[in-house]
Write a structure and sequence with these properties.
Length: 487
């Protein structure tokens, strides 16, 4: 493979092994091995922050806070805009780095870099449009003024599945709002975060405004930061389990929380759907990042009349995908993030088969190095199988049959999650009627991809609290201040 030929500039893992990044300084260290899931080999080792390092990062964020808050919005906007331009300029290197440490196929990695950079462009535009309010009291005798102020130091915790985009989706609005931040990326994929911090430096982000630390003790390090009264915001993206733990921890100091958590997206296909469009959408909703996405279609509910044709079409498309190393330009489905992830997928598929599911393609881990699972389609899956309840986070599409609209709605809502849902139907009246009854934060109608920096991203039920992106995303990093005015 052309791997080594492509590792230049920001794509070089060794360049980013210099972390931690605190107060504008790089402090070398080691202790956390970063693996290449495509080969099972070590890519680099990054520093392992202690609680004391985390406190130094809070000091640095505090030292930079008043200067950043006082920086005119236009200037903050221009720094974000330059950061967007630098990410775009170095997109191919960043995509290679993501493909190396995360394993996702290069086209997915390129898509992620473009999506990630857009959060900086979008929030460069929003930084200068912070809303305020002027109202009259109902009695007519007084005035109400509402201003929005930066909330304070924000701790940002991100997962491994979108190492660039989950970070920019938080850093963009936080910096636009006037907050300083401490980013803790996932241990599996820290190199992209460090690479982006270098680009941020180049873009003119002042020392201490963005700090990045990796740690093998996320609980102790985060708890210490949350207990510090200077930290006023926690923005977390990750699993619902860790989100619950962090909400309890943040409650001790009443820290404001935004939570982007797990999903279990239903994908509804009605008899009147355009079959080819539904299959195109299914492939995007299922296979972006090889299924390692919170918005990934986790349950395909297909109406009886179109069920057979849908299963046949999906099976043909899934079976045709080329599985291989993420960094290989021909790959369409890369490895999973860890061998543990493969074991989890195997457990869910084996359990479904034992309960009566039929495999139409795939169905067993690939021998190779323990990181690969093939694109898989299951039909006849019982709705009480574990695979219908848990996030699969892999390239497996379980298909369930339904008869009536009411059944589809009941099945789709039968989960504690509520992040994303998809509907395919050519009857827009029906799609809107069903959509209104789905318990979800986001709904794709005849679309398999919903992520857009200009739209509010987030879930209901146990999929989270708050929204990222869109025009409201910046307010997650601001507090409203009300002035009761008499004049
Ligand atoms: P995870 O295990 O919850 O980890 C997420 C982040 O939390 C990592 O940085 C992790 O650090 C850190 N962490 C773990 N335990 C912690 C603790 N006790 N205190 C503080 N931080 C802690 O999730 P993941 O496996 O990386 O990501 C997959 C999950 O994220 C899925 O459930 C997916 O649905 C969800 N997700 C949601 C969205 C969304 O927008 N709703 C987007 C993407 C992913 P270490 O890496 O060091 O353990």
């Amino acid at each position: 493979m052309t791997l080594h030929a492509k590792i230049t500039g920001y794509a070089d893992p060794a360049l980013h092994a210099a972390g931690l990044y605190i107060g504008g300084k790089w402090r070398k260290g080691d202790g956390i091995a970063v693996m290449n899931p495509s080969t099972g080999e070590k890519l680099a080792e990054v520093a392992d922050a202690s609680v004391e390092d985390a406190m130094r990062a809070v000091d640095a964020a505090e030292a930079a806070a008043s200067g950043w808050r006082a920086t005119p919005a236009r200037q903050r906007s221009e720094i974000l805009r330059r950061w967007f331009q630098l990410m775009t300029q170095h997109a191919e290197e960043l995509a290679t780095l993501i493909a190396l440490e995360n394993g996702k196929a290069l086209p997915d990695a390129r898509g992620e870099v473009a999506y990630a950079a857009e959060f900086f462009r979008w929030y460069a535009e929003e930084a200068v449009r912070v809303p305020g309010e002027y109202r009259h009291t109902p009695s007519g005798s007084h005035h109400i003024l509402v201003d929005h102020e930066p909330i304070g130091i924000a701790v940002l915790i991100t997962p491994w599945n979108f190492p660039a985009a989950m970070a920019t989706r938080k850093i963009g609005p936080a910096l636009a709002a006037g907050c300083t931040v401490i980013l803790k990326p996932a241990s599996e994929t820290p190199l992209t975060a460090y690479a982006m911090a270098r680009l941020g430096e180049e873009a003119g982000v002042p020392p201490g405004v963005v700090n990045v630390l990796t740690t093998s003790k996320p609980g102790a390090v985060t708890n210490a930061m949350l207990a510090d009264p200077r930290v006023r915001k926690l923005s977390f993206t990750g699993s619902t389990g860790v989100g619950r733990t962090l909400l309890a921890e943040a409650a001790k100091s009443v820290v404001s929380c935004s939570m982007e958590l797990g999903g279990n997206a239903p994908f509804l296909v009605f008899d009147d759907a355009d079959l080819e469009a539904a299959l195109d959408g299914a492939m995007i909703a299922k296979m972006r990042n090889a299924g390692e996405a919170c918005t990934a279609a986790n349950r395909f509910y297909v109406q009886a009349g179109i069920h057979g044709a849908f299963v046949a079409g999906l099976t043909a498309r899934m079976a045709a995908l080329k599985v291989g190393p993420g960094y290989d330009p021909a790959t369409q489905c890369g490895p999973m993030i860890t061998t543990n992830a493969v074991r989890k997928i195997d457990r869910l598929v084996t359990d479904a088969i034992a309960l009566g599911a039929r495999v139409t393609t795939g169905g067993k881990p690939l021998a190779e190095n323990g990181y690969f699972y093939p694109p898989t389609v299951l039909e006849n899956v019982p709705t009480d199988a574990a695979i219908a309840r848990e996030e699969i986070f892999g390239p497996v599409a379980p298909v369930y049959r339904f008869e009536s609209e009411e059944d589809a709605i009941r099945l789709a809502n039968d989960t504690e999650y509520g992040l994303a849902a998809y509907i395919y139907s050519q009857d827009l009246k029906r799609a809107m009627r069903v959509g209104k009854q789905l318990e979800t934060g986001m709904l794709g109608i005849n679309r398999g991809l919903m992520s857009d920096p200009a739209a509010p991203f987030g879930g209901v039920k146990q999929s989270g609290l708050g929204r990222e992106g869109g025009v409201t995303g910046i307010l997650e990093f601001m507090e409203a201040k009300y002035y009761a005015v008499d004049y």
